[in-house]
Amino acid sequence: MTILITGATGNIGGEVVNHLIQQKLPFRALVRDRHKASQLEAQGIELALGDFSQPDTLDTALQGIEKAFLVMPNHLHQVALESNFIDAAQKAGVRHVVKLSVMGAGELPSTFQTWHRQIEEHLETSGMNWTHLRPNMLMQNMRWFAQTIAQSGAFYNCVGNTKISHVDARDVAEVAAICLAETGHENKSYVLTGGKAITFDEIAAIFAKALGRSVSYVDLPPADLKAARLANGEPEWYLDAELELFTCWKQGTGTAVTQAIPDLTHHSATTYEAFAQYYAQTRAQDFFSGS
Ligand SMILES: NC(=O)c1ccc[n+]([C@@H]2O[C@H](COP(=O)([O-])OP(=O)(O)OC[C@H]3O[C@@H](n4cnc5c(N)ncnc54)[C@H](OP(=O)(O)O)[C@@H]3O)[C@@H](O)[C@H]2O)c1
């Protein structure tokens, strides 16, 4: 069996690669830029150059592939771009696509959830087998807050004391690797969460302990958060989509805890405390100024 991993230079795809290496499963990684993928190449991983925005580049990458993992960042044209990959996979005779989606797809009215459901539907009607992985907010998003924590010991959002069942991307990737390696996951959706929903104040306390420095969460009015992040150069469409999601979360839609990770991996979902310890060990320099 040959597996194709997209997003191999990214957060989740990179962790899927690690799991497939551990399991000694043969796979190929689709990358846009060979230089960015030099670490993968150094590990002896077979690379195929391709870009979802240039469908012609996908045909060679998909030759001989039976199962594929599909992921890309949120993007204004995400539905069209992921659909390009699905169409190319179907044409190449791929039998099964494991798609990285999002919790609330098809249920919440927010942009990211709507787009992911549209892509899921495109995959479901392709004739190929599918598995939708729907994670809640990733613990690894703490990287987005590292700069302000380093500068001022604080991070900012507008979700108040809402509880969210954050999930570790390494657990999500482990589930993806299981769905790629095994049968029995065809045409199923898995909602992937941590074992507990917690507030950003609780996260601040956990990170403060793990990093050995003060960390606090500052809640801002949504308009102030948007203005600050716009001034920081982030695109307005993206900020609006995030604010929609935060509004949904404030209504309690991000708190659900599911058993999919324990059921599939046979271990508990990673706790925020364990994640923070790991992140403090591997990324501590990101959270301190002058480093
Ligand atoms: N963050 C969260 O809390 C969260 C929660 C649930 C779901 N999600 C979903 O997770 C996805 C993002 O996953 P991630 O964090 O692993 O993303 P990521 O770290 O930004 O990685 C994205 C990968 O996609 C590749 N890529 C980008 N554009 C591409 C294109 N046109 N063609 C082919 N490959 C392309 C990138 O390659 P390059 O290295 O060349 O750029 C990179 O390897 C989004 O769809 C998001 O909705 C995120």
UniProtKB/TrEMBL annotation:
Residues covered by the NmrA-like domain: 2-227
List, alphabetically, the Pfam families matched. NmrA
Q: Could you identify this protein by its name?
A: NAD(P)-dependent oxidoreductase
